[in-house]
Design goal:
The chain has about 110 residues and is of the alpha+beta class. Helices cover about 25% and strands about 25% of the residues. The protein is globular and about 30 Å long.
Length: about 110
């Protein structure tokens, strides 16, 4: 299975519209959004899924901080936001990633 995030977004092969860029995390507008607002948050190091992220790591803390910042900014602008991640068969790319979305404009 391919890893879009490592192979394309993080490598720079596919250009992305960056929302946040920290030492360990990249947040960007989804390249094929399924929602009116659709931001993806990924660790810059390959981590296959949420269950493989060490909970007490610096990486986990930074991911949560970036997720909170992006979700707060979107909620303030659009009135709401959801944060979603998937596991197993629901996870299309085997690289930990979170979707910060607005399901429909208010």
């Amino acid at each position: 299975m391919s890893d879009f995030y490592c192979d394309e977004a993080l490598s720079g092969r596919t250009r992305v519209e960056v929302v946040r860029d920290t030492p360990h995390v990249l947040a960007f507008h989804h390249t094929r959004p399924a929602y009116p607002v659709h931001v993806v948050v990924v660790p810059k190091r390959h981590i296959p899924s949420l269950v493989e992220l060490p909970a007490d790591s610096e990486m986990a803390a930074e991911i949560l901080r970036v997720l909170a910042e992006v979700a707060d900014e979107i909620a303030l602008t659009h009135g709401a936001a959801s944060v979603v991640t998937n596991l197993g068969a629901y996870q299309e790319s085997q690289h930990l990633h979170f979707h910060v979305i607005v399901r429909e404009e208010s």
